[in-house]
Amino acid sequence: NPFSMPQGGMEALQGDPLKVLGYQYDLACNGYELVSGAIRNHSLEIMFKAFEIAGYDNDEVRKRFGGMVNAFQYGAPPHGGCAAGIDRIVMLLAGEQNIREVIMFPMNQRAEDQMMDAPSYPTSDQLMELGLRVVPQE
């Protein structure tokens, strides 16, 4: 995973890619992931090397992840964390088979919120309030 810091840093990426371990953490219960986290990659050099192993050259990485590459050029401190999937825990406690039965803001298969009719087109007043305009595609 190019976005997680490999154990052993750049040196680890010089060897067998199948033996590289990441600083990634998960807690699973009966096949359900309840907590997930990682120490994030904070080295542009290591990120480029990890993507190279996956078959992407630096130009492709810049094209796909330009914002991140730009930010890394200014330096990024070591950072990471983890988070619990509270909705999955509630699903298990409620005895439900599908997370959609307990999720706070359920969406359909097309990522639409049926109750809020979202996403929807903004009104002219909303655009004006935010100082935005819609430019039609050519």
**Average pLDDT reading:** 92
Going by helix content, strand content and strand pairing, the class is: alpha+beta
**CATH homologous superfamily assignment:** Bira Bifunctional Protein, Domain 2
Shape: flat
Number of helices: 6
Main pleated-sheet profile: 3 strands, antiparallel
Q: Any idea how many domains?
A: 1
Enumerate the spans where pLDDT stays under 50 for 5 or more consecutive residues.
Answer: none
In N-to-C order, the SSE pattern is HEEHHHEHH
Reading off the top of the CATH hierarchy, the class is best stated as Alpha Beta
- The CATH architecture assignment turns out to be 2-Layer Sandwich
Radius of gyration, whole Å: 21 Å
Strand order of the largest sheet: 1-2-3
Portion of residues in helices?
25-40%
CATH topology: BirA Bifunctional Protein, domain 2
Span between N and C termini?
A: 37 Å
Strand residue content: 15-25%
Give a written overview of the molecule.
- The protein has 138 residues and is α+β, with helices and mostly antiparallel strands.
- The protein has one domain: BirA Bifunctional Protein, domain 2 (2-Layer Sandwich), CATH 3.30.930.10.
- It is 33% helix and 15% strand.
- The protein contains six helices and three strands.
- Strands 1-2-3 form a three-stranded antiparallel β-sheet.
- Helix 3 (58-64) packs across helix 4 (66-72).
- It starts with 8 loop residues before the first helix and ends in an 8-residue tail after the last helix.
